[in-house]
Amino acid sequence: MNALVPLPVVMPLTVCGLSLFIGPRLRWLHRVITVGVLAGVVAVDLVLLVESDRVGPLVVHLGDFGPPLGVTLVADRLAALMLTVSGAVTLIVLVYAMGQDMADREENAPLAVFHPAYLVLVSGVSLTFLAGDLVNLYVGFEIMLMASFVLLTVGATEPRIRAGSTYVVVSLVSSLVFLAGVAVTYAAAGTVNFAQLAVRMPELPLGVRTMAEVLLLTVFGVKAAAFPVAAWLPDSYPTAPAPVTAVFAGLLTKVGVYSMIRAETLLFPGNRLSAVLMAVAFASMVIGIVGAVAQTDLKRLLSFTLVSHIGFMLFGLALGSRGGIGGAIVYTAHHITVQTTLFLAAGLLEKRYGTTELTRLGGTARTAPLLAALWFVPAMNLAGIPPLSGFIGKLGLMRAGAADGGAWAYVLLAGAAVTSLLTLYVMVKVWNLAFWRAPAVTELPAEGDVLEESDDPDSAPEEGSGPVTTTVVRATARIPRVMTAATAAAVALGLAYTVLATPLTGLADRSAAELLARTPYVKAVLGP
């Protein structure tokens, strides 16, 4: 089974190369091969998940060169779980994108660009989860970011170029800091292999270890969009096409969280920076959700909730206990799916009515009840309503915080409770404004019509009557069934975490134990 480990990285890259030779007229072939390879990646991910849970970490040394010279890929329980969840989500988003016909019918977004870039993104995400050393973790980040630069600016509109420029600058600066962290680590320890670093790091002077840890955590914090290095995210993500925003929100930030978990448990054990991580977690939760409360555009609102709920994952990591890390793993898997689903539902809303501005929507539950249901279920899941997976993840984190018993832990418990309540408030606010309240217009426009303010002077309000507030509801197009089906599949995946709560939490607990023990990982890579 070790031979399967490189496939989630190699398969998308191979098909990406083939797709570049397919002309834009063969749209059906682009779709077939892209969906086929991602379905194959999900199948491989599932096999790796089962086998890593059964026999322990699966390791392959590419070219049969062992550490420190060779490239090592490792699929332990945590990596395999993240691979499986991300593989399922990327497949769903791809189907959604094809249903939207984003890359087929927009002249500025040719199919020949979207599909190869998307496959490169999937390959980069897989490499970051499987990387067995810092250099290949860096390479995985750069592959992922290179593809994200293309996808973020698909269509080349002015807002997308402006937001993409911010994203590029932040990413390049963080990459430079990452290289500095890799250089410091290699100069001090003589290796960048994770297993060898796990052995050598405790022998280094405390100052050197702290410098390397701070550099790496800073980089991963930027990738995860944790406060105070999260200001770039709400300005960058909402401008992209709906499928791109969905996959970015679901996956790219979680790659940063995964890297923080891997580094803190394997390279820097002892939880020495727990107080700093707890402060960052608290600030991310509270400031992120307060920002969401102030928003009236749905995509920006969801971007702020994304920043806020990164704090829950950092909460578990900061505790450093088996329960805390297990809770963080459960919440990460849950959040990948639910946050992606909410952005997909927002894309459906924008497709149907032409806007995501809450003040211009209303009555959607009456005119599009299925769309309302597809929004309501993941919204309640994000808010943590029992018995959904959001509640299960938060409950695990809060139990771990209570078991810790420290002052910072109780501060984080209070912050988590307040954030959960405000998240529920935000989700109810969206429901009331966009779905539940009656629109200001008496009748919804017909299919393809756009309701606008009249220029007829006879229809103007009388002088002194005050301003007139209207809700503009657009019915620009019917939602393609494929988009609806893909969103429904994402909702079902989120609900599956609730149905499979016992196996999921058990796997997360075993993953946390394996991470904290470190020995299984080190022995699998270096030998007994």
Strand and helix map with partners:
Blueprint: H1 7-19, H2 27-55, E1 58-62, E2 71-75, H3 77-100, H4 102-105, H5 111-130, H6 134-152, H7 158-189, H8 194-200, H9 206-224, H10 232-236, H11 242-267, H12 274-293, H13 298-319, H14 322-353, H15 364-367, H16 369-383, H17 389-404, H18 407-436, H19 481-499, H20 501-517, H21 519-526
Antiparallel strand pairs: 1-2
Helix pairs in contact: 1-2, 1-5, 2-3, 2-5, 3-5, 3-11, 3-14, 3-19, 5-6, 6-7, 6-11, 7-9, 8-21, 9-11, 11-13, 11-14, 12-13, 12-18, 13-14, 13-17, 13-18, 14-16, 14-17, 14-19, 14-20, 16-18, 16-19, 17-18
Quick structural overview:
The protein is an all-alpha fold and 528 residues long. 72% of the residues lie in helices and 2% in strands. Strands 1-2 form a two-stranded antiparallel ribbon.
Task: Kindly describe this structure.
The radius of gyration is 23 Å and the shape is globular. The chain has 21 helices and two strands. It has helices spanning 7-19, 27-55, 77-100, 102-105, 111-130, 134-152, 158-189, 194-200, 206-224, 232-236, 242-267, 274-293, 298-319, 322-353, 364-367, 369-383, 389-404, 407-436, 481-499, 501-517, 519-526; strands spanning 58-62, 71-75. The longest helix has 32 residues, at 158-189. Residues 441-472 have low confidence and may be disordered. By secondary structure, it is mostly helical.
Features:
mainly alpha; globular; 528 residues; 2 strands; 21 helices
Helix content: over 70%
The number of distinct β-strands equals 2
Low-confidence stretches: 441-472
Which sheet architecture does the biggest sheet show? 2 strands, antiparallel
Rg over C-alpha atoms, rounded to the nearest angstrom: 23 Å
Distance between the termini: 20 Å
Strand arrangement, major sheet:
1-2
The global form is globular
Strand content: under 5%
The pLDDT mean sits at 86
> Could you say which structural class the secondary elements and strand pairing correspond to?
mainly alpha
Helix run count: 21
- Helices and strands, in order, run as HHEEHHHHHHHHHHHHHHHHHHH
